[in-house]
Design a protein that fits this description.
By secondary structure, the chain is of the alpha+beta class. It has 10 helices and 18 strands. The protein is 35% helix and 23% strand.
Amino acid sequence: MLFSSLGPTRLYLTLIKALLAVVLLHCSSCSPSYSNFCVEGADEFVCDSYKIRGGKLAVLDMQGHCVGELPCDAMEEYTDFVYEDDILNIAIYHPTRKDLMESVKTINETIGFKVVDGMVNIPDLEPLKVAGLTLTEAGNYIQEKFREQIQDIEVFVTYKDRLSRRVELSGLVTTSTIPVDGKIRLFETLSKAHIAPNANLFMSYVLRDGCPLPIDLHQLIHKGDMCQNIVMRGGDKIFIANPQDARIMVMGEVFHPVPIDLPYGFMSLREALVSAGGIPYTGDRNHIQVIRGNLARPKIYVLSWEHIVHLPNESLLLMPGDTIYISEKPITSWNRFISQILPSFTGFQTGYTLYKILD
């Protein structure tokens, strides 16, 4: 017999040596290997964190996207004209003609005054051609025609809706279209859209002619950066993102590995670790890794707990797509290996004892 010449003590020592050899081989194979990746330390992570503080455009530049520039006339108001299929809101005031005021008000509240063949039909007036006029010119023209019959009447014209000259909105908004008039700006458009309070403005965007504009809605709304407050044009599209559209992942030796939403497009590493429940005693606090970028060739930052404790939050920023991985301590690998092998070893020892009894 193979083990018949070995006593229980010598057999136990032999198995322990074999286990140690296997564990050492296991630990050496499990130690992090970065030979194929770009590995950086805390200094580079801090430098990149200050870039992230620059907002969405800085993050896109870090990710290798071509940001571009705003059109040269993006901030300039322009003269807008009444177009075919525009729906006008016409309000009139006269101290005695309550009947006319009510009839016009009823039309405004139901279908509005639609421009058909360049003209609008108004009670008590023949069809009037308003296409090609500004709103002010259209209002003065309609008022002039009314005053040929009724003195002291006042006319006010605004847009109720526009089929071609409007901004389309999608995502976390309650209003799908907003008409433009050559003066309405992005901030006012967003306020009229009734954006959901948990919307991720960092990941939201504005399209013009099918191309994204270099606009950071988070900077506009939450930071008051009026350099982002462009004048809206017909055909512009705005998408308001969900909170889940920007996430990071915390994995490894944490109490609660979990994906975390980034409502503002960034988060401090300290806050992310707190959201994951912290690092247990099994985690190696000297190997806190942040994995960023393409999975084929990621950029890996290796930090320690000392960096987390002593550096300010704005120096430890994460951006969408980052993965935080906490390595396990070497002793953790040993303990887990022993906990897995002990049942087998106990069964072997029981079998050996039974064999000796029956021998």
